Amino acid sequence: MAAVTVSTRAPAATRASRRTPRLGTAVVAVAAYLIAVIFLLPYLEMVITALRPQRQLLDRDYLPSHLAWSNFVTLWSTGLGRNIETSLEIAGGATVLVLMVAIPAAYYSARRKFRGRGLFLVLVLVTQMFQPTALVVGIYRQFNDLNMINSVWSLILVNAGFNLAFAIWILNAYFSSIPKDLEEAALVDGTTRFGAMLRVVVPVAWPGIVTALIFTFIAAWNEFIVALTLTTNNTTAPLTVALNGYIGEYQVDWQHLLGGSVVATIPVIILFAFIEGKVVGGLTAGSVK
Question: Cys-Cys crosslink for 237: which of 95, 190, 231, 274, Cβ 3.0 to 4.6 Å?
């Protein structure tokens, strides 16, 4: 009997179809890297300019002949450390206050079908339409009457107020995606409604809480207009206002301005690097039922 030889070679069409996804993946990867480089170039330029010696500041060469690390050393002598501390107090305080209010509000609106629930959520969203720039005169007059100019608490309250609506919407969507059976089981075991929220719902909703946390922190960290309006003492001003102080009437201290900008990005990068994975889950909550 003649032996039957079975070819193990895949048809040409199959091999081509296997190569096509790999080619498409490579093209997407190359495009992604190019876009990343384009977005990173301004930050690279910022770091290079911060390290330029004063006499080479206007040179055409992209890279200086040597790096002046002393620019970062003298940066701290300008009082930037105190400004960073103030920004951390404002951003941290605003974030804690937002979470303390947004978690119960979002939980109640997600679990209770009370009358006017839809109107309440719409009004919460409408508050996002008001920008601090449009309200800065009224904000200044209010805190001036309360004798809270140059107060960290005034900036904490303002930043918490402007970021509360976003946090409620994010957490409302996440709480709505959590099955009610988990809470009902805890209630059967004798746990109160508040205890079920803290012990059962909050741990499950941690990605959504982290999303609200990081967006609130970054928004409060980067806020400038209200901070400039409510702060007249540059030594206790937040970091954004202190950086503006390096821009003089006749000249700009580019090394310290960009060096301070580099320092300002570090806390946000560290925070986002630790919780980046949970942010994706929090933003996509409620999209799949």
Answer: 231
